[in-house]
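In the present case, backbone shapes were mapped to integers, as reproduced here:
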Amino acid sequence: MDQIIQELRLIKCQNTKIGGPLVKGISGGERKRTSIGVELITDPSLIFLDEPTTGLDSFTATSVMETLKDLTKQGRTIIQTIHQPNSDIFEMFDRLMLLAKGKVIYFNKASMAVDYFTSINYKCPDLSNPADYFMSIMSIESIEKPDSDDANELQQSQRNIQQVYAERIKFFSDSYQNSHLKNDPTERDLSAKPLQVSDDQLKQQASWCYQFKLLAQRNFLNMIRLPQTSWVKLLVTVMTSLFCVVLFYNVQGDAAGV
């Protein structure tokens, strides 16, 4: 546990409450790293992350990504989805997969992406963030819309935009499929070995009593650590009860009362 805290740079806040709506706790970046630490307790070799930098400022997002990069140096594989990373974060990527309309338009080393798109006449502007440029050319919003107030012209232009966008994504997909950078995501690396898991291990399942015990214990600890939340829930329950009494006091059980 102490090693995980040190790896995630959480030493200064290791005795601080996580916090919540009513209690000020750790910062957003520390909260993200803590959620990652929860998954590291079982020492996994593969970690999936869904937008780990969402809601963070640029500096904090970069700090979280640096922590994840350090974890990969220990032999872990980290796969994540991310939207609009800054240039510093983009340079940390080892491999990059770009998806548009369910199609893979690039899947190879991130450092080769700019040169690849330049080779198919989509050159990333100098001194700009490649991630922002890739998101732009993959988005339908990047296609210029004509200025017009006529409803028929707007409808026709919308159909044209959809067609242009579909043709662009098809061009990206076909170009990648025919390039020397193409990777088969279903192909297994020869050095990868299957996990040795017995049938007994696959059938193991925690009992209902054990699961109930863990959930009850966690809920009880949350109530103790955040008593303000419990008081708010109690107040809401009491107020709701009073409203019910006031609204339905002396209401008869006949059809008119119902």
